[in-house]
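hiii so um. not sure if this is the right channel but i have a protein structure encoded as tokens and i wanna go backwards to a sequence. like what aa goes where. can anyone help
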């Protein structure tokens, strides 16, 4: 048995949810460029869960279900008030809150297809309320209940700030949600599938996936990009900062990818939005610094930016706290996790690979009193 480091190139399952072929990303056969330009996030959720686009009526029904399920049980809200809230990372709070939600869902352990679908709806619907309520409570503000007349994207921004968002902000946020929704067998989706392949429940699958997304080599990179931009501070500092990091063999966050070679097709959409929004907010330096970093990293290492690089300046321009960037990734990606969880249940087999053992050979047990 020989191990492949990081399972690179290993095909671990079949899936009809999304594909990456020759650097082209599709959700159920629809090109991400097409979806990013035209689709609402709600349509994408339907597409991933049903593996076809909805009719007008089906879309209206899904929107209604997401809307009526959007509020959190009061026990979850009360729980936030028990945390050492200013010391807790919002990704840790989100991971805990999703697990907690499972305790208050009467169907948590009902492993029947329709019950699993209903849980998917309830969980997707509540993700914005978890992230925005936590963000407000830690600032001493009251959570804002969702509105039934707003889209998923608009509602998130409204519940975060309490103000009705501008159309440009809704458009940008909807696009970001569409772009982050699914991505074949990325680390967090694989985690979710491994978890539920033991026939564990939907909440356990999503809780595990949030844990995997949190790391800076995966979803956590978007927050790390903003930290880097803030540390660099000015356009003049970019060159020295980036070249020094590369010379020390340190990673530049938001660059590189396990699967894409020529580039991540999502990055160009976020780059365009970052340019537009940073100009609108009067902070074009974030975009100028980002493009300068991109030029150096692609020139020196031939590593193109990934989805996390320009999403950082997009979210910053929308006035969002930097440590909420990865939770926002989860608000979108939960749609993909749930699609994969439902797909795993459809045709389940335990996921259990082997390890190539590299420890010592057979040893004889020696009683503790006789050890030297
Ligand atoms: C949504 C997402 O999850 S997208 C990815 C988000 N993560 C990041 O942006 C973090 C920065 N990027 C990385 O760490 C990596 O590119 C990953 C984790 C995304 C992919 O990693 P892998 O396929 O395992 O590549 P690995 O980490 O082995 O790197 C291969 C080589 O490229 C280099 N490299 C890869 N990414 C970077 C980077 N961002 N900056 C500098 N060098 C890099 C490595 O140092 C290594 O060089 P070496 O061969 O000289 O040692
Ligand atoms: O696919 C991956 O390895 C990481 C990624 O880009 C994503 O999850 O969106």
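sure thing!! here u go:
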């Amino acid at each position: 048995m020989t191990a492949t480091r990081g399972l690179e190139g290993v095909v671990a399952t079949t899936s009809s949810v999304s594909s990456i072929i020759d650097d082209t990303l599709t959700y159920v056969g629809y090109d991400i460029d097409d979806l990013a330009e035209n689709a609402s996030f709600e349509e994408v959720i339907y597409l991933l869960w049903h593996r076809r686009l909805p009719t007008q009526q089906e879309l209206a029904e899904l929107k209604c279900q997401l809307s009526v399920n959007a509020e959190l049980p009061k026990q979850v809200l009360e729980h936030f008030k028990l945390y050492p809230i200013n010391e807790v990372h919002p990704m840790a709070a989100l991971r805990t809150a999703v697990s907690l939600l499972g305790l208050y869902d009467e169907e948590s352990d009902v492993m029947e297809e329709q019950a699993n679908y209903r849980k998917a709806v309830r969980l997707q619907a509540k993700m914005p309320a978890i992230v925005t309520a936590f963000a407000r409570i830690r600032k001493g503000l009251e959570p804002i209940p969702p509105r039934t007349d707003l889209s998923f994207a608009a509602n998130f921004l409204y519940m975060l700030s309490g103000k009705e968002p501008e159309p440009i902000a809704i458009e940008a946020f909807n696009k970001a949600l569409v772009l982050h929704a699914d991505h074949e067998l990325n680390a967090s989706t694989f985690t979710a599938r491994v978890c539920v392949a033991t026939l564990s429940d939907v909440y356990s699958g999503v809780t595990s996936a949030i844990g995997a997304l949190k790391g800076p080599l995966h979803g956590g990179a978007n927050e790390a990009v903003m930290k880097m931009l803030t540390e660099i501070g000015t356009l003049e500092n970019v060159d020295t900062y980036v070249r020094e990091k590369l010379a020390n063999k340190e990673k530049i966050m938001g660059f590189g990818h396990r699967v894409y070679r020529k580039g991540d097709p999502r990055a160009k959409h976020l780059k365009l939005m970052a340019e537009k929004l940073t100009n609108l907010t009067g902070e074009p330096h974030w975009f100028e610094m980002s493009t300068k970093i991109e030029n150096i990293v692609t020139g020196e290492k031939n590593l193109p930016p990934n989805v996390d690089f320009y999403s950082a300046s997009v979210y910053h321009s929308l006035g969002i706290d930097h440590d909420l960037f990865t939770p926002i990734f989860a608000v979108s990606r939960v749609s993909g996790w749930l699609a994969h969880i439902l797909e795993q249940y459809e045709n389940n087999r335990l996921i259990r690979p082997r390890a190539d053992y590299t420890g010592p050979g057979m040893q004889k047990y020696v009683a503790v009193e006789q050890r030297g």
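oh and The pocket of acetyl coenzyme *A (ligand 1) is lined by residues 6, 217-219, 221, 251-258, 301, 303, 306-308 (CB under 6 Å).
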